Amino acid sequence: MSFLGKINVKILGSGTSTGVPVIGCDCAVCQSGHTRNKRKRASILVSALGRPKILVDAGPDLRQQLLEENCADIEHIVLTHLHADHCHGLDDLRSLYFYHHRPLHLYVSPLHVDELKTRFNYIFGKTGYHGTRPQIELHILSEGMNTVGGWQLDHVHLPHGHVQTSAFRWGHFAYATDFKSFPKQVSDLWRGKIHTLIASGIRDRPHQTHSSIPETINIFKDLEVKRGIISHLSHEVDYIQTLKDLPIGTELAYDRMPIVVPPLNAISIDCIEKRD
Ligand SMILES: [Zn+2]
Ligand SMILES: [Zn+2]
Ligand SMILES: [Zn+2]
Fold first, then answer.
1. Cα–Cα dist 246/248, whole Å
2. Whole-angstrom Cα distance, residue 38 to residue 118?
């Protein structure tokens, strides 16, 4: 049965593949002093009382993100896909093993296994690599319900250019990043079930492989989510300017944003947090 209790989510990174500021860019957002215009690569940490933490993605900023959160007790990691901004921090999982001395459980879609093993040959193959490798136990996710560290996790695929991305639903909370659209069968499956959805929306204008902010807002409406949070933002998105034009119930993610997904039995209460 899906988890119905309170879920705590931390946005570890709210940025697109380059991060924001972009190296060498002198645009207003990259030069902005506002902390909410500074975005590390997209990742979240999901936790609940009595459940192990689940880390979603391990991008190039992982070390800094976990240091900021002072968090080392992670044993379960799910990957959305194998683009560099979502997995090039895998080597930093070594420190987690040094901390708890238990192997790390890494969960990936069958669509991503071959590329994972190719790209991280030194971890999964016999290459004669002399350094310390992350101690990883690999698990292949099924489409639909999976058990991940005691959680029931609903796993679907979304189109993202030439690849498919894995999106995940923990009961009434879901995370979907790096997709162009929601296929009808996924929308039909998830509609009305999600209280809080964090979904990518890279910028205002359309993008070839990513959903734009207006497209993501339409997905929130279609899925009837109560609280929609847009992440994976590029340097075209100024936090203050963009936030003020968003519809009620829709917010922009920012780095280190804490999100409380209320237990299902409390959802009749208006739990959309006030904007600050
Ligand atoms: Zn990405
Ligand atoms: Zn810029
Ligand atoms: Zn991607």
1. 7
2. 32
CATH of domain 7-262: 3.60.15.10
Rounded distance from Cα 160 to ligand 3 centre (Å)? 7
- What are the DSSP E strand ranges found in 92-249? 104-108, 136-140, 144-148, 151-160, 163-170, 173-176, 196-200, 227-231
Q: Could you say which ligand is closest to the alpha carbon of residue 161?
A: 3
CA 242 and chain centroid, separation: 21
Could you tell me the two tokens for 34?
A: 């506002």
Report pLDDT for 265.
Answer: 79
Mean pLDDT of 235-249: 97
Between 261 and 266, whose confidence is greater? Answer: 261
Take residue 36 and report the two structure tokens written for it: 């909410």
When comparing pLDDT for 130 and 87, which is higher? 87
Which residues are within 8 A (CB) of 172 and not within 5 positions of it... i.e. 6 or more apart? 2, 4, 7, 193, 194, 195, 196, 261, 264, 267
d(CA 20, ligand 2 centre) in Å: 7
Chain length of the chain: 276
Kindly identify the ligand whose nearest atom is closest to the C-alpha of 237: 2
The Cα 53–Cα 8 span in angstroms is: 10
Q: Evaluate if residue 146 carries a pLDDT over 80.
A: yes
Q: Which pLDDT score is estimated for 272?
A: 38
Q: Which residues contact 30 (CB under 8 A, 6 or more apart)?
A: 20, 21, 22, 37, 235
**Domain residues of the chain, as ranges?**
7-262
Say if residues 58 and 84 touch (Cβ distance below 8 Å). Answer: no
Other Cβ atoms less than 10 A from the Cβ of 45: the count is 18
pTM assigned to the model? 0.95
The ligand minimizing its distance to the Cα of 20 is 2
How far does the chain reach from its first CA to its final CA, in angstroms? 35
At residue 270, the pLDDT reads 45
